[in-house]
């Protein structure tokens, strides 16, 4: 909640509930000074903790499936880490758009969670051949788009899941950075496209930031996306949060509370 604003600030004022994603470092604090330009108002019908959990992950999901590749009804897409924070939001949203969703996860427990949040098909990456299963599910065609936040461990597999002229959206690298490769592999595998987008680019203008956040809040208020906060930690336990994330012991959204 805004406590005070500078003399030239417009758009937000004391008492407004606001949220942000990105911006200058320093969010592990009970209060902070921020430029008003990165703030968006939280609308009625969206709780504070929901907004805290959804801003970064929800806006990431929005630009991925509504702008980087605007998913159409009837399309089949592959989303890695489907039980993660971005994955659970994106898979619900994709289902609401009328897509067929294939998700990858690392365990049976996470497979159950992914199915409950929009995944029509779940591939357990620790024991299944991802590309083989995708080809089976799509009748050998492959998918038009793969959303990959894993990086090094899944990059080549993701390319093998695409149909000719398909798009690999590499938006993260939880397993490490993708190693340098010969771009000729894109032509060999079907004249494929590759992009490495960031939320900062997609929300660089005030208009884009507001439009992105508004669409996220809209799908939440309409009930198309349910944000489940499965883990809450005191702010003092920030180190444990990072240890649990690194150890892949979390599912869905995490909120730290002062």
Structure description:
The structure is a single chain. The chain is α/β, with parallel strands linked by helices. It has a domain at 72-196: NAD(P)-binding Rossmann-like Domain (Rossmann fold). It is built from 9 helices and 10 strands. The strands form 3 sheets. A 6-stranded parallel beta sheet has the order 5-4-3-6-7-8, with helices on both faces. Strands 1-2 form a two-stranded antiparallel sheet. Helix 4 (130-137) packs parallel to helix 5. The radius of gyration is 19 Å and the shape is globular. The chain starts with 17 loop residues before the first strand and ends with a strand. The model has no long low-confidence stretch (mean pLDDT 95). InterPro entries: ADH-like_C (IPR013149), ER (IPR020843), GroES-like_sf (IPR011032), NAD(P)-bd_dom_sf (IPR036291), QOR-like (IPR047618), Quin_OxRdtase/zeta-crystal_CS (IPR002364). Residues 2-256 form the Enoyl reductase (ER) domain. Pfam families: ADH_zinc_N. It comes from Fimbriiglobus ruber. Keywords: NADP, Oxidoreductase.
Kindly estimate the percentage of residues that lie in beta strands according to DSSP.
Answer: 15-25%
Query: In the CATH scheme, what's the topology name of the domain at 72-196?
Result: Rossmann fold
The total beta strand count reads 10
Radius of gyration: 19 Å
CATH homologous superfamily identity of the domain at 72-196 = NAD(P)-binding Rossmann-like Domain
Can you list the strand order of the major beta sheet?
A: 5-4-3-6-7-8
Average pLDDT for all residues: 95
- Report the top-level CATH class of the domain at 72-196: Alpha Beta
The biggest beta sheet reads: 6 strands, parallel
Question: How helix-rich are the residues, as a percent range?
Answer: 25-40%
How far is the first residue's CA from the last residue's CA? Answer: 13 Å
CATH architecture label name of the domain at 72-196: 3-Layer(aba) Sandwich
The geometry reads as globular
Looking at how many chains there are and whether they match, the oligomeric state comes to single chain
Protein structure class: alpha/beta
């Amino acid at each position: 909640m805004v406590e005070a604003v500078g003399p030239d600030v417009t758009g937000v004022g004391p008492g407004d509930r606001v949220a942000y994603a990105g911006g200058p470092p320093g969010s592990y604090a009970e209060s902070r000074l921020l430029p008003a330009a990165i703030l968006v108002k939280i609308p009625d019908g969206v709780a504070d903790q929901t907004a805290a959990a959804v801003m970064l992950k929800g806006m990431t999901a929005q630009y991925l499936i509504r702008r980087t590749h605007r998913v159409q009804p009837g399309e089949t897409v592959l989303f890695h880490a489907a039980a993660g924070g971005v994955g659970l939001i994106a898979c619900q949203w994709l289902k609401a758009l009328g897509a067929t969703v294939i998700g990858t996860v690392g365990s049976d427990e996470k497979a159950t969670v992914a199915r409950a949040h929009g995944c029509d098909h779940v591939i357990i990456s620790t024991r299944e051949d991802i590309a083989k299963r995708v080809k089976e599910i799509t009748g050998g065609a492959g998918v038009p788009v793969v959303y990959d936040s894993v990086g090094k461990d899944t990059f080549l597999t993701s390319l093998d899941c695409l149909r000719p002229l398909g798009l690999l959206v590499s938006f993260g690298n939880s397993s490490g950075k993708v190693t340098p490769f010969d771009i000729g592999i894109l032509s060999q595998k079907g004249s494929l496209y590759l992009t490495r987008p960031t939320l900062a680019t997609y929300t660089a203008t005030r208009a884009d930031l507001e439009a992105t956040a508004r669409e996220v809040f809209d799908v939440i208020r309409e009930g198309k996306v349910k944000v489940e906060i499965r883990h809450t930690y005191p702010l003092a336990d920030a180190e444990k949060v990072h240890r649990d994330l690194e150890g892949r012991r979390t599912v869905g959204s995490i909120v730290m509370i002062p």
